[in-house]
Amino acid sequence: MNGESEMNNREKNDPVVVIGGGIAGIEASLLLANSGRKVYLVEKTSYIGGNVIKFEEVYPNMDCATCMIAPKQQELLANENIELLTLSQVESVSGSAGDFSVGIKKKARYVDLENCIGCGACYEPCTVEVDNEFEEGLSKRKAIYIPCAGALPNVPVIDTENCLHFKGQICQACQESCVFEAIDFSQQDEELQLKVGAIVIATGFKSFDLSETTQYGYGKLGDVYSAMEAERMCASNGPTEGQILLKNGKPPESVAIIHCVGREEKGYCSSVCCMASLKLSHFFKKKLPEVKITQFYSDLCIPGKANQKFYEEVQESGVDFIRATVTEVSSSGEKLALKYKTEDGQESTLAVDMVILNPALEPGADSSKLAEMLGIPRGKAGFFSEKEPDLTSVATAQDGIFIAGCAQGPKDIAETVAEAEATVGRILSLSK
Amino acid sequence: MAKKIGIYVCECGANIAEKVDIDQVITAVSPLKDVEVVERHKLLCSEGGKEFLKQSIEEHGLTHLVVAACSPKQHEVTFMSVCEQAGINPQLFQLANIREQCAWVTPDGEEATDKAIRQIRAAFSRVLYHKPLESKEVECNPDVLVIGGGIAGIRASQALAAPDRKVYLVEKAPSLGGKVRSFSKLFTNMESGLTLMEQELKSLQENENIEVLTESKVEQILGFLGNFEVKVRRKAEDKDLDFNVGAVVLATGFELFDPRGLPQYGYGKLDDIYTSLEFEEMNLPGGPTGGKILLKNGKPPESVAIIHCVGREEKDYCSKVCCLYSLKFDRMLKSQIPQIKVSHFYSDLCIPGKAYQKFYEETKELGIEFVRSAKTEVTSNGEGTTISYETEAGSKGKLAVDMVILIPAMESSSDARKFAEMLNLPQDEKGFFAEEHQLLSPVASAVEGIFVVGCAQGPQSISESIVQAEAATGKILSALVPGRKLELEVRTSEISESFCTGCKTCILVCPYGAITFDEAKTISVVNEVLCHGCGNCAAACPSGAVSLKHFTFGQIYQELKEVLR
Q1: Model-wide pTM > 0.80
Q2: Is there a shared CATH topology between the B5-133 domain and the B489-549 domain?
Q3: Fold designation for B489-549
């Protein structure tokens, strides 16, 4: 009797590890923690917020993304039931539902989370400059840095690959500039073993690699951008502070947005790109009312009760939609020449200043390694497979392991949050 | 008791000290009445800073606290918990934001110092009028009412029910199962919806923590998160059942747009034109044709047209799942009548997600024709029907078919309005229940404790409906833990009985349904349990009868007086 109730109690209080600190991981962690569970949130970068914090605004209501998610980030950082492990990755998993052992490698930040107040005084004296990955390489950062304004925790990280101190040179410029004694070169990487009852996979997505395409001139022609690069260009906290400029420093007069880049290669519709393309049109029209925008698409996929209205608004703002396949983008004088073919086989050309490619979504970078460790099958496209594809997307073939968000397949923010909440529903109802 | 006020100025390293002359600030605020101590600190939010603050409060026996530092968003909670540890009511504290609102934005040092002094005087002036509001807790009932016995309601009930949590599942029809029961096949696995439902119902019956109430109608729901009183009318027994629950899940499903409103499709006038749900029923083994796809004349059709997006323009949204289930229809038609010719008339193929393109491609390989049509009409040709279509480029075509299946838009169920009114629940402009936040809170409603899942919230697939049912489960299990009390917001609004004129303006602007009308006294009354302290009512009240605790007119006046001095 006593043993049984102890057992029951233990299960009820089993900690949970959530892998991935994007919107799905944040929502799952908060709900679990508020129910009284201990949560370890494992995030490989130095900040939480994932892809959502890269967006200036989110469709269909054009809410400011950082304003929307910042209270959740703050709540997470303040929640005593959540242990946030940034710069951390899962290295091993053993055991079964109710009794997992998860090995974590946590890299040193070299900046003390308690002492640092995020004032940024340490960046200026750093003499290193490298491309900022967060800004899609569109701007530079120092070797000690916060990826962008709004990344939380608001504490920088030292990139040991580029930091002169860690390359063996005599430099402690950042340390000398910090009045809070927050910079600590002696921090060590740690290895942790977590005992948990359940695991949530929320490792998100990355974009289809555009360097795999040749016909659009990406990486070769100056003003051909990916959708994420365009997002950052539109963002007021981005590399151009929200200014949309061509390589020659002038604003574009005409822009083409190409949908479904990589769809054929991947073999699926990425669900959110039509809306994301409409959003980019909205930004461009707002910032440059005279700009001529043409969208090249095959089928418009704007599912659900709220999206059509946004499409109509964008259409009314004077955006052209051409149902056609773009076969080639090439340089033509100062402009880009876009060759396209409509469904009835007619070929035409359009000259524009800027081209934006909207690539397919793929599972996050470390999915295959993680899937192997967790024993979760993946589909052909590499997304984590759900146990009952037509019934619920959150349960996996392994009891006690759940998936939420784009780790399972391309989806929008609302669907991602619902899945995160659903994993919590599953976990909390397991122990009853 | 004499007031003893402490003022503490944070340097925030160089962040504040570099711009604001803190010595000058201290000199300026020290003479204020009842100020017991004024101190500066390098970093008050640090562990050392908090310890210093706590000891200083205790040492000086302070009654009120003012901290001049950063934004309340950053550290209000931090200093409120120091208050608690040092034995001061945390409401008797005010944070003056001299970083974000002063040092960081006021370039001139002298101006910044003057501004900081005003801000601290304002905080000092206001804190004297603060009330020591005490936090309250209420008991909560962990049980849940689920309305709607379709797949979403069933799955939510199963996930929620536990030995310490009873679920009442109310369904107006004589049996559970919703729409899924009438689907002879489900996409993409092409298994029977009826079989799925039978399994679901079996495990539901075995669950002793679920009370199923079929042929029942919810007559009334009163109360708030943790404490709802429910009245259910049981038709068969001709009696009412009363019980209490802590949360409500609305899973009232969808209905199809009625194509009779669109004469161009001939529905209701011409033979052999069916809606998608009618076609589903025709395929049921227990259906009118015993599961056989037959024309009115008793023969199997040789050709079928499937017309997409019926009513999309009228409803002004894409119903999300229609393209997918029409592909399922192709497979059902082809497996029963292999030689049948199937043509789709559609505008855009919407098959979002990782799994469906393959389903589409494999279906297409069965020999299905897809015609992109901007305008489609159905007319009689004497023997059967003719489809007239027009491509986007404007070229026209005709096709004679034996049978037409219309794919109408999905609408919110006709019960939705009744529940919206009963629960003071907002509906969006399309008639679906509105979410608390479209992106960040997709299954909660604006009324705390009421959740909206499945097609009651918007068109979605079975799997998405189940995910939402599980999501509501997650929210409920996280919020209503048996044995745990709910902590209430202390900064709520209150309505003065003598000033209220009963105009009900406050009721209109309250997003939480927290204000009700006392018909006997003809005044508005705030329910403290529901009030989030947003202040809408206080701002809107034309008689000045509403005041928001901790943001009373008196307190704000005191603050402004010093800022503008």
Answers
A1: yes
A2: no
A3: Alpha-Beta Plaits (3.30.70)
